[in-house]
Queue: 3 jobs
Job 1
Amino acid sequence: MNDKGNMDQGQVIQRQFSPVHTAGTEAHSSGAGGGYVLRISVVAALGGLLFGYDTAIISGAIPFIRPYFHLDEYSLGWAVSSILIGCGAGAAAAGIAADRFGRRITLMLCALLFALSGIGAGLSTGLSLFIVFRMAGGIGVGAAAIVSPLYIAETAPPDRRGRLVALYQLAIVAGILLAYLSNFILAGIGDSSWRWMFASQALPSVLFGLMLLLVPETPRWLVKKGRLVEARRILSKTMDPASCESTLGAIQDSFRNEGRAVWSELCSKKYLPVVTLGIFIAVFQQITGINVVLYYAPVLFKDTGMDDSASLLQTVGIGLVNVAATVISITLVDRIGRKLLLKTGSGLMGLSLAAMALCFRYHYFQHYVILCAMLVYVGAFGATWGAVAWVYLSEIFPNRIRGLAMSVATLALWLADFIVTYTFPVMQARAGNALTFSAYAVFCGAALIYVLVKIPETRGKSLEEMETLFLK
């Protein structure tokens, strides 16, 4: 990844918290340009909607592709998790593309990959071709996971940044819900319904690409490319003239005054502790089992005796709870703090997984206990780890290494997601659902201990204050 491109994300956030930028922030707070910033942030966040849609559409297709491709537990895990290999590649390439072509053009390329991968997967007649297209979609997912928040970070005022960045997670869960609804509607077509499930993602992909035509490039990238007139015009829509000029000058200064970070610095004594902290946050978000529920929910419900239609309908309920919980997270993250939410989420998720393990152990599937436990688990994740982990990762890294460290943490997240997603069918077949969910519950307990011991609160602190907090 281009070091200078990674540096830019940290630079712009640093300048947003500098005194010279405060005037611009006050303009936002008083309403100047607030609607404009919200609109372009919403469009950028829609990259998360395609993220959620592309990754979750597989859940409804599993009952159909398993017999079609003759999948055992190993090949099923590979078919479902292969997209995450593409995610890792997309995350690695996103910085170079965003730096060279711009944030907006890179997101347009993501939209194109989303559309082509959906159509290609739907038309696939062999497992190898199906996996190739899923990986191609994963490249778009991985790139959007970095570029969409980056776009928002470079345009949002600091007093609203936490909520606007959280919009990205809201878009992800909205995409997951949309995928569940699509699966439920299309499941009745017949044995070929899985093809329409994948192909359906072309429609939101095209809409996202068209909406990107209506938003500008970020002022930060424009200044970097020497296009000051365009950058000034965009900044003038978000703040008063005096703040516009001072902010533009601060951005220009940042290119002259900031050094260039290198990968080796991440392993230095100064930065390694905070980088390690970020990696643990990213990994815990995944190894506590969330994507097992999101990807394999219909399979789990069928194990309790439900038919395909009832399984897909209850999966829609999971999507609705996920969206509602994320909205709650957006309202709480700047009020009660990150650490309390992470602690509460770890505890509730662990208890819910333990309840599910007991139900599978004793084959107790009455009174919707499994469904209720799963809904509590998904709700707890959505209100805590789902959104808060992304917000926390965007805050803790020092400005100098922010982009590089985010890339490492995001790659760790995708690798953890891949391992969990790939191994679940194998663990389910070899150890059973009870032991599998017990293992995820233990990981929730480990996450709780780690948060209690290692995670400091960051609410209300500027990035400069956090550098003092994390760099001992």
Job 2
Amino acid sequence: MIPLIAPSILAADFANLQKEVEMLNASQADYIHVDIMDGVFVPNISFGIPVTEAIQKHAEKPLDVHLMIVNPDHYLEAFRNAGAEIISVHYEACTHLHRTIQAIHKLGAKAGVAINPHTSVELLGEIIDHIDLVCIMSVNPGFGGQKFIQNTYSKVSRLKELILQKHSSAKIEIDGGVNLENAPKLISAGADVLVAGSFVFNSSDPGATIAALKSF
């Protein structure tokens, strides 16, 4: 299976944001992954709605918006209006997850649920057939360039079993530390979407790196 690739714009050169987005437009990337961090849910602050709007202004690929924030329900409509086509919220941040998923769908976006490294995929059993995507964090969220957590492979396999068992159409997305070494193993385990930030944007030829990730 050819994976979908979602380069994380968080690792881009923000002084040349339009140029970076245009590079992704011309590449084999399938989505543009947009990491929103509030400094509360995760120990870092990235950017918010105005920058998301600026990315959307030039983007020709769907925006895959990952809300690493507390109280995500308060911002769903704003990010949808800013151009998000996929909105992922964290399991750990949502008290009423089913209601949040319903709200995302009502806005006309695809709904994703992200889970931190310590969160078991089995906890998604009651919601898996209502969502479009599960984002498995393969690093601790908050900073780019972290080392990939090896337990992710078995986590992907268990999630794939759950998806098949529940007859869900949810895609499995991996976010954090993805590279050419672990990508084929992740795909073999059942991953559908690979998020890559530093590995893409710090390479000498980001377009070729994206193409290489799609070649498995």
Job 3
Amino acid sequence: MSENRLDEGDDLKRSINWKQGAAIALGVPMLILPSLGYLPMYVSAAAILIWGISVLQGFLQNAAYAEMATTFPKASGLPGFAQHLFRTENYKGKYDKGKLIGGFTAWSYWFGWNPILAIFAITAGGYLHGLFPALGDTFTEYQLALISGLVIFGGLFIVNWFGLKDGALLGYILAAISLIPLVILAVAPFATGHVDLANITGNWWPTDWAWDMHHILMLFGIFAIAQWSACAWETAAIYGPEYKNPSKDVPKALLACGIICLVLYVLLQAAVIGVLGVEGVQEQSVSPLIPVAQAAFGQAGSIITIIMLIAAMVLIIQTAYLGSSRAMHSMAVEGNIPRVFGRTNRHGTPFVALLVIGAFNLVLISMGNAAAILAASAIGYTCANGISLFAYVKAKKHPAFANLERPFNAPKGWTNVSMIFGLFNVPLCLIGVVYLNSLEIGWTSTWVGFLVLALYLPIWLYSQHESRRTKPEAAAPPAVHAADEREKVLDLT
């Protein structure tokens, strides 16, 4: 077993099936909410096409992640794959650069998911302010966001304390509350005749669009923002160590989530633009679903919509809370951040990670700008996807991994597909999102994003010092030092 594994008692428990994993990940469709009015600002009705392409991109990327999840069932999704595949076994030097790359990938992924808690706590506070105007006489929107964060984070911490199985049960309940009405909102405007197709076909591209470098860089940035939402259902694979049967459960959970995202993302954007038109969406960029609900169901429908959306926000916060805590646990297990962050309770819950993530997001809420937080978060998520796809290529080509058993195999030629999309993410989408951020909200979010990513270096250096300090003084027997690298690999399989 790797020398960086934590002590017995820090292992995650195999307690869920594919339905429960999918239920937790079903919060992902709610990630479209902050961007329903954002994408049409730049690409008009072509936002519908962007969402469809981005979800299909998710299918292509997630096929690679599903294969890695079943090849390394003890690795926690993207963070676990990258950390294991890039590290150098039996490394004799002081600092393993491959281990640093793998850890940085996990850190980037953690930063991609982590701020979702703050983003939707701020959004929930805003919706509460709209649903109950009297609250504005007592609380500011910031105070409502902070209260929402405290209540939601605290409640989810208590629920998840008892293990992932209970988190999945909460996912079932919230999915019924939020996904079903969301599907109704996606379909009802078409059924009631409120969708005017001319709003879509007559405004497909902005009139001033030109295929020059400025607009191409913008398009890469838009794909990065869309990917942050439309590809995020890979979270179903991050629970690989906690599925009862990873070889069957992971592909099923990913397929179910992908189909739901494809239908909802395309229909929701089409319904919003079809009812309001591009200009109407831009005027209601923060919450365009509310006037859509008013058009389809009347004033009562808008109230129901707000209640439904708040429930949906709790669901996506639950998804992000679990995903980012597993990423932090994985980094601690691999010795890439201090070991204390990987501590689990007797139910297998990484409770220290949950506490730290909750506190960190309460600080983020103080920024008060959900758009800026999302823009910074997208930088981390883009880096994580790009490097993780390169890790898949290594897993297929490196002699130590090439012949491992793969209960689920991506289609033939997926190494090339993964390399293409890895390069699409890094550098193209990364450059694009930095450029788009500079146009939209200045350089603040970009600097915040890169600052958080850069903080990983001193944290990692400290964790390496900690690992060396706690390593047993007695040297391992020569037979262990001479063990074949592939035998080490089998520990994760």
